[in-house]
C-alpha cells in the first residue's frame, strides 16, 4: 500500500496498544515502524528489474521483522521504564506495527515475499488496490483524533474513534476478499460457459474502489482480459491474445526473474525493435499497465540482451 496508509496503519495499531501509557509517542513510534519496511526502495539495485523484484523482499519478511522487533523493543526499553509501560505491551507495540505492514501489502497485486528467503512466488492476494482512500480514511481519522485529543475525556473518546477506525478498515479489507471470491466464481462460470480454457487466473481491483475488477486468464501461451463491474453485474471477456513467449528462444536472467515474480502473468512484445515485458497483473483501469521493461534489442542476429530499462 502507499506510504500514507502504512504510516496511519502503524500509528493506529501503536495507539491501540499503548496510547493510554505513552500518549502521542505511541502514534509516532507506530507510524515510524509502520513505514520502516519500505525503506528498501532506497537500496541500490543492479537494474530496473532487480529493483522491481527485490522490493518487498527481505525487509517485508516475517523471518526478518520478528527478530527486528526484539531489537526495536530493546532500544525503546532504554527510554520507557516498566512503571510507564509493561515489557509485554512495549514488545507488541514494536512487533505488530512492523508485521502489519507486509501483511497489508500482501493483499495488493504487487507481490510480497512474506517468507523470504524461502523459495516460492511472492504472495499476492490482490483483493485491494494499492491506493484505496476507503481503507485509509478511517485510520487517518482515528490518528487525527488521537493527536489532537487533550485531557482524559477527549483522549478516551479519541481511543474509541481509533478502535472504530481499525475495525472499519479491517472490515473493508475482509469485504474486498469476499467480493474478490464472488468475482472469481463469476469469471470461472463465464469461462466454463464460453468454453475458454484456463490454466491460471489472476483477479484484482482496477481502481481505488471495490466496484471495478479485472481478471487475467492465462492458458498455453495465450491470455484473456476480463472486466467486471459489481454494481451493474456485467462481465466482458476479450478476444484471445498472444503472450509472445515464442518471440525469444532463450530466456534472459531478467526475464526469468520477472516470470518468477509475476507467476507467469507476463506478456512479451516487439516495440520498435525492443523486447518489452509487461506485468499483466498491474493494470490501472484504462490508463494501462504500471510495469513494463525493455529487456533486449533486435539486431541482425536476433535479440541481444540489454540492461533492463523500465518504460
Write up this protein.
The model has no long low-confidence stretch (mean pLDDT 93). The longest helix is centred in the middle third of the chain and has 43 residues, at 151-193. Strand 2 and strand 3 (222-229) form a beta hairpin. The chain has helices spanning 3-22, 24-35, 48-54, 62-77, 87-105, 133-148, 151-193, 253-261; strands spanning 200-205, 212-219, 222-229, 234-237, 241-242, 266-271, 274-279, 283-284, 288-289, 292-299, 302-310. Strands 1, 2, 3, 4 and 5 form a five-stranded antiparallel sheet that branches. Strands 6-7-10-11 form a four-stranded antiparallel sheet, covered by helices on one side. It has three domains: 3-176, no CATH class; 178-237; 244-310, no CATH class. It is built from eight helices and eleven strands. 46% of the residues lie in helices and 20% in strands. It is an alpha+beta fold and 311 residues long.
How do the strands and helices of this protein lay out in sequence?
Elements: H1 3-22, H2 24-35, H3 48-54, H4 62-77, H5 87-105, H6 133-148, H7 151-193, E1 200-205, E2 212-219, E3 222-229, E4 234-237, E5 241-242, H8 253-261, E6 266-271, E7 274-279, E8 283-284, E9 288-289, E10 292-299, E11 302-310
Antiparallel strand pairs: 1-2, 2-3, 3-4, 3-5, 6-7, 7-10, 8-9, 10-11
Q: What structural class do you assign from the helix and strand content?
A: alpha+beta
H/E element order: HHHHHHHEEEEEHEEEEEE
* Low-pLDDT segments: none
Largest sheet: 5 strands, antiparallel
Strand-residue fraction?
15-25%
Count the strands? Answer: 11
Taking all Cα atoms into account, the compactness measure Rg is 22 Å
Number of domains: 3
